[in-house]
């Protein structure tokens, strides 16, 4: 009898505790959310953010810090309008000590024509370092840079007993015959700009800037011509 009662006894089902169930669900949700946040934080360290933080339209707080916009890199403007080919190549630049001005004693011409003419004399090419055109065969005021300047080699424009003017002097030739007419204004502007650049670069005093005919030891010549404005030219220099 007692045995039958024991066999027929049913263990009552445990009653669910509503408050405990809610706690378990909340706990599991919290842990899953925390794991998800950890994944997001870890992955976010690998790259820089590419978007601005999302700000709800109805957000009224003042504790959200928004990074300032990044300014673009400023563009650096050139500090000078000196043509690049006036600068000698690195590694071959000489320490020049004088500047000698010439005229071509021809009404027309340019670097290529003078180069051919000088080669016909048996030279290795045009004897000057720079040629400034008068608008005939090159631009009016155009400065042509010769191979001698690019290679920084001895010139062939002003012979002296010890050849110092060709070795240490920079030869600049203006196209034209300045016994007949003056240089053009553009030629003079270009000459002043070029001489000013060279004078400052090599610390050449005005006493070492001369016309061909007044260069120490040079052969007697009226170059760069009776009408070349030497006094006005030197007074225009800034060094």
Characterise this structure:
By secondary structure, the chain is an alpha/beta fold. The protein has a domain at 97-235: Lysozyme-like. Helix content is 33%, strand content 11%. The protein has seven helices and five strands. Strands 3-2-4-1-5 form a five-stranded mixed sheet. A hairpin with a 5-residue loop joins strand 2 and strand 3. Mean pLDDT is 79; it is low at 1-12, 16-23, 29-57 and 70-79.
Name a few traits of the molecule.
disordered N terminus; globular; five-stranded mixed sheet; Lysozyme-like; alpha/beta; 33% helix; 7 helices; 239 residues; single chain
Short description:
This protein has 239 residues and is of the alpha/beta class. It has helices spanning 2-8, 18-44, 111-120, 147-151, 164-168, 185-202, 230-235, and strands spanning 98-103, 130-134, 140-145, 169-174, 209-211. Strands 3-2-4-1-5 form a 5-stranded mixed sheet.
Beta content: 5-15%
| Anisotropy-based shape | globular
How would you write the strand order of the largest sheet? 3-2-4-1-5
**CATH fold-level topology of the domain at 97-235:** Lysozyme-like
Estimate the mean pLDDT confidence: 79
Percent helix: 25-40%
CATH architecture descriptor text of the domain at 97-235: 3-Layer(aba) Sandwich
Largest sheet: 5 strands, mixed
Number of strands: 5
Any low-confidence stretches, pLDDT <50, length ≥5? 1-12, 16-23, 29-57, 70-79
Which structural category do the helix and sheet elements fall into?
A: alpha/beta
Could you spell the SSE succession in H and E letters? Answer: HHEHEEHHEHEH
In DSSP terms (H or I, runs of 4 or more residues), the helix count works out at 7
Distance between the termini: 132 Å
The CATH class assignment of the domain at 97-235 is Alpha Beta
Q: What would you give as the CATH superfamily of the domain at 97-235?
A: Peptidoglycan recognition protein-like
Q: Rounded to an integer, what's the Rg over CA atoms?
A: 43 Å
